[in-house]
Specification:
Helix content is about 25%, strand content about 20%. It contains 3 helices and 6 strands, in the order E-E-H-E-E-E-E-H-H. A 3-stranded antiparallel sheet has the order 1-3-6, with helices on one face. Strand 4 and strand 5 form a beta hairpin. Helix 2 packs antiparallel against helix 3. The N and C termini lie far apart (about 40 Å).
């Protein structure tokens, strides 16, 4: 199962229009994930919502869809690429709280920033031991 965000009119980048239940034209599967060879999607609806500001940057009101496609390229688990995509059912957009966004950001930072003092502080914040 994949997940896709669209504008209210079912368009995405460069005004490409999706139609629920209909497979998109097949792309080449070559080049970078954000290039013309791939449709991009997410493996979890939460990732779609949390990463939207740095990927598609769709403004509300956007729409969230279940989708299907064969993953051909994976961007370190952040988003995936497929050469064909089909939208399924539309999902209600869940509320992502500020606390959930901070939690996600801290987990991402811990994965790449090994400073011991930061790691201790972040782990205490995540465990609710110390939220200063």
């Amino acid at each position: 199962m994949l997940y896709k965000i669209t504008c209210p009119d079912l368009t995405t980048y460069q005004r490409f229009r999706y139609e629920p239940g209909v497979w998109t034209p097949t792309l080449s599967g070559t080049g970078d994930l954000c290039g013309p060879g791939w449709y991009h999607a997410y493996t979890h609806p939460g990732l779609a919502l949390l990463l939207n500001p740095i990927h598609g940057n769709y403004l509300m009101p956007f729409r969230l869809w279940e989708a299907e496609g064969l993953i051909g390229l994976n961007d370190r688990g952040l988003k995936v690429g497929t050469t064909r995509l089909r939208l399924g059912r539309e999902l209600a957009i869940p509320l992502v709280t500020i606390e959930q966004r901070v939690h996600f950001a801290l987990l991402a930072a811990l994965a790449v920033y090994p400073a011991p003092a930061f790691g201790r502080w972040a782990k205490n914040w995540l465990s609710r031991a110390n939220r200063t």
